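lol ok so funny story. i was supposed to be doing the assay writeup but got distracted and ended up predicting the structure for this chain instead. priorities right. anyway since i did it might as well share w the group, maybe its usefull for someone
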Amino acid sequence: MPASVEVYYPDVSTACERPIFMAPVAAGFPSPAEDYIEGTLDLNRHLIKHPAATFFVRATGDSMIKAGIHPGDILIVDRALEPADRKVVIAVVNGELTVKRIRMADGRIFLTPENDDYPPIRIEAGMDFQVWGVVTNVIHPL
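and the output, tada:
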């Protein structure tokens, strides 16, 4: 693993259930508030499907901005999922970690950014290439 990358593993040993209000929230005109709680929500259950195969990593750079991945975002990565065409993945290319959308066509693999300022990376024979996992969720502040 590159020395400058911080990888975090989820702590699913504790539940952090929070109340969930099932009343819809209007993004237009306000609607009357409902004053009841439907139940609780544990984000670990909703965001982490394979705890033993999941890790978190913090994004840097702006190559995936159109995919909703911003500098400083926390990416939830699942190693149990198979990388497939058009999935966003964490990959190692020649010893460097990157987050890109994987594209597979005509037996070739490309790692494509979601920012027109960056070119795709074509994976060639002889390159050190490995997919670490599939990005399943992005956490970022508003």
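Residues 7-139 form a domain with the Umud Fragment, subunit A fold (CATH 2.10.109.10). The beta strands are 7-8, 17-20, 39-42, 54-58, 74-78, 88-93, 96-105, 108-112, 121-123, 129-139.
back to the writeup now i swear
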